[in-house]
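> example.struct
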């Protein structure tokens, strides 16, 4: 591993901060477009994140979905109302603890999630097709460190 000169490292970190800001801006623009796309049957990016999180479990609580999708619990509760109304998820009281409500995908929800996963996997594959696996692993580690740093602030 080569060590960059102090000026080169500072320049690389500044470039990374700038690109991170661009990434955050792109995510904000994506959420903004959701507001203009709302309508019958349209899922927002937050809905999709919640579905992806739920898709990793047979059933989960709203709190577990919020944590996994990195969404606020209050926002998830409202989203679950919308998803239930659309027939994408179902909710049942936990048999062991009636205070807890468990969320699961319906058959239609599983189909919706499968379609969304295919679309997103295709977009990721296309956008990053020429990036070597080693670089993807390093990028993932860098993002984990940035997330940890932001959580500490």
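> example.seq
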């Amino acid at each position: 591993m080569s060590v960059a000169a102090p000026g080169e490292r500072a320049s690389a970190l500044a470039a990374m901060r700038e690109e991170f800001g661009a990434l955050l801006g792109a995510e904000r623009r994506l959420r903004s477009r959701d507001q203009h796309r709302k309508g019958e049957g349209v899922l927002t990016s937050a809905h999709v994140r919640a579905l992806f999180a739920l898709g990793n479990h047979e059933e989960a609580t709203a709190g577990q979905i919020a944590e996994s999708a990195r969404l606020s619990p209050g926002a998830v509760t409202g989203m679950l109302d919308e998803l239930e109304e659309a027939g994408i998820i179902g909710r049942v009281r936990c048999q062991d603890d009636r205070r807890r409500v468990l969320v699961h995908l319906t058959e239609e929800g599983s189909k919706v999630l499968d379609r969304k996963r295919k679309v997103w996997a295709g977009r990721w594959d296309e956008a990053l097709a020429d990036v070597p696996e080693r670089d993807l692993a390093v990028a993932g580690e860098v993002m984990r460190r940035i997330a940890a740093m932001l959580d500490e602030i």
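> remarks
The radius of gyration is 19 Å.
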